[in-house]
Recover the amino acids of this structure.
């Protein structure tokens, strides 16, 4: 990189959390690699934790074959989850003014033990899991032209997650067949099953652990993992209520306040 890691992290922080106008990371690091972008993400999250926030887990994007083909990627993108971006089930969430916001239906995983890659297997992941929970991701559509490097380095500092209160033990359930229905203002918007998340949400857990392991990071007991959307995203506007119900995992709901989303095609 042209600049030091600390310099780039401070630059990112001032634009993602401070008052500096948004700019893409390639504007100061035009040759930034994807590996370097991941290292910057983890350094940025450590900086946030040092200022009073907390890393509560990780997430994966591009976990469906359709999304991978659409965006030309061959593996999920891993992002860090901050406590400041985690909402309690059923609370009202304020939309960011002027930003397009969508909701994704996801299966969340709670870990009971550490999980460190590389080399994590499906069985390793299963043995490390405390249980599964219903969840949604609140995602803000990025500015046009955002580079993949910026997407990785800033993943996930906007939007948020909401996890339900029901924890289902991992024994006796095949997540590939776990169904979900998402409703907006009481009307069904879509449905799907866990197979949409990389063929099996457990495969996503393996992918996250091994991706982190490649950068010297690891999963810790008590962390929450978001395994990717099993239903096509749903746009939300101010005043909307979202409800997601799973076959066995229970449900999660949220209401939204503030400025309407410009993505809403209703």
């Amino acid at each position: 990189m042209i600049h030091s890691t600390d310099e780039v992290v401070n630059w990112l922080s001032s634009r993602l959390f401070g008052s500096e106008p948004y700019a893409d990371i390639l504007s100061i690091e035009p040759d930034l690699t994807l590996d370097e972008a991941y290292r910057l993400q983890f350094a940025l999250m450590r900086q946030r934790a040092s200022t009073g926030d907390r890393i509560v887990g990780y997430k994966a994007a591009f976990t469906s074959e359709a999304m991978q083909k659409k965006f030309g990627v061959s593996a999920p993108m891993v992002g860090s989850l901050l406590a400041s971006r985690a909402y309690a089930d059923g609370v009202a969430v304020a939309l960011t003014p002027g930003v397009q916001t969508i909701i994704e239906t996801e299966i969340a995983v709670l870990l009971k033990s550490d999980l460190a890659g590389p080399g994590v297997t499906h069985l390793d992941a299963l043995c490390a899991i405390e249980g599964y929970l219903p969840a949604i991701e609140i995602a803000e559509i990025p500015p046009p032209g955002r580079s993949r490097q910026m997407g990785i380095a800033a993943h996930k500092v906007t939007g948020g997650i909401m996890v339900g209160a029901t924890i289902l033990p991992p024994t006796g359930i095949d997540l590939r067949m776990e169904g979900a229905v998402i409703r907006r203002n009481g009307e069904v918007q879509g449905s799907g099953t866990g197979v949409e998340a990389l063929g099996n949400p457990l495969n996503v857990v393996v992918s996250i652990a091994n991706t982190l392991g490649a950068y010297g990071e690891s999963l810790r007991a008590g962390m929450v993992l978001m395994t990717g959307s099993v239903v096509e995203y749903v746009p939300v506007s101010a005043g909307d209520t979202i409800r997601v119900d799973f076959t066995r995992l229970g449900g999660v709901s949220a209401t939204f306040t503030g400025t309407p989303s410009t993505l809403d095609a209703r």
